[in-house]
Amino acid sequence: MLLRRTATVLAGLFVVFVLIAPSDLEKFTPEAFLRVPLEGLVGVMVLVLLPDRVRGPAAVAGGVALGLFTVVKIMDIGFDVVLYRPFDLVLDWPLLVPALDFVDVTFGRAASVLAVALTVVLVAGIVWLATVSVVRLSTVAAARRPVTTRAVAAAAVLCVSLAVPGIPVYSDSAATALVDHARRVKVGLHDQEAFAAEASVDAFRDRPGLLSALQGKDVVFTFVESYGKSALDMPDVAAKLADGDARLTAAGYSARSAFLTSPTAGGGSWMAQATLLSGLWIDNQQRYRNLVASDRLSLPRAFREASWRSVGVVPGITQAWPEGDFFHYDEIYPAQKLGYAGPRFGYATTPDQFTLESFQRNERAKQHGPVMAAIPMVSSHAPWSPTPDFVDWEELGDGSVYATMPASDDPPESIFGRDPAAVRADYAHSISYSLESVVSYVERYGDENLVLVFLGDHQPAQMVTGEGASRDVPITIVAKDPAVLEQVGSWRWDDGLKPGGTAPVSRMSDFRDQFLSTFSPPVA
Description:
By secondary structure, the chain is α/β, with parallel strands linked by helices. It has 17 helices and eleven strands. Strands 3, 4, 5, 6, 7, 8, 9, 10 and 11 form a nine-stranded mixed β-sheet that branches. It is elongated. The termini are far apart. The chain crosses the membrane at residues 32-50, 62-87, 107-130, 151-170. Keywords: Membrane, Transmembrane, Transmembrane helix. It comes from Lentzea fradiae. InterPro entries: Alkaline_phosphatase_core_sf.
């Protein structure tokens, strides 16, 4: 008898927990669980009133549904922690492939197989537990139909009579979550059509004279990983930008800065990079796949067709990268082609300073015509510890100099097991290192023909930004030739490396058209 009662209580607690648990870890407070789930009351009454021959199958179906809902809620929590948004039942399944690839590359094939097996077992276990719980509660409730009916009615009356504005007594979060997911499913099912319509419009396709105002310039687009607007409020980062401003000004350079709204946050760098370079809003993997299978005019392709040598320096790429064909680079430098023989610092395969040095050595140091480069740097990628020391450029060599520095191959998710204050400090330090690499590169290798655009790809994880942060990232253009900065005057960006609070904000997908319009002749 005691065992059965314990099983019933545990089943009830499990069902209540699943129904009222928030989909946001920030809201996991004791107060959040002191509520009556209305969905539970309705479910109990439906099962109690059903005929005996139907109740069993209905309880099983309800349990399976509750189990699947639990799995989706866990996915919602995970996506909210990393990407600031819930899981999309239509568009987010492809993201599991790069996640599995990451495990494969970082920990080996056996680890990736084990991860898949454990995931299957976990999902099956959750569904089984939810089904057993609902069936148990259904059986007990039906055996005490009058008592159950009165108890549900009393709970419903209390929820209404005790309700006070601002102090919720009942919860309908499960029903709300289902409605929200249903709405996203509807949008997701039509997203491919919406994207095709957006991609079909391109005012710059086959337009003559593109980028003629930049002839003879080496144009470098550098993505600083996780460099978001939130970083600007950190003293270390603000000091580094102020120092960089003073140094570049002394060297004869000028800079203008603003904000772009990224299509992603916390991760998904490839989608942000594709958004900036293609001029299309890429906020899910389906859009990314459709983009790289299309013939959309990207910025690298536009430069190449305008007689620049177009290169992609991508230290984060460690495997085959067929998507790179979309950008029409003349040359792609993945991690293994950068010549780095030093240790790995967290996720980063190559320190940012070495990445820039490798680009200089392989491209700009040689006798060359104008070069355009897209360089996603990775030193400021989570877990943000350890960060390499900045060294003299002449000492970089093949990277062996880094062997004396503390290094690791910790995965990005390791930040969730550390003190948040320490994580934020490490984040600020890594961003400062990346900014130092960019500024120092301009000081050492810049000239009248260098035009550098550097920007963040997305905001870091919520552990760093806090809840409710925007998706805005800083963007800066640096040049020595006054004519370049004169041409971007109409953008009304702020002077210097750090955009102010009232600096212009535009969608990242608008940048390609803005850039091409500014540096190309007007349409006749």
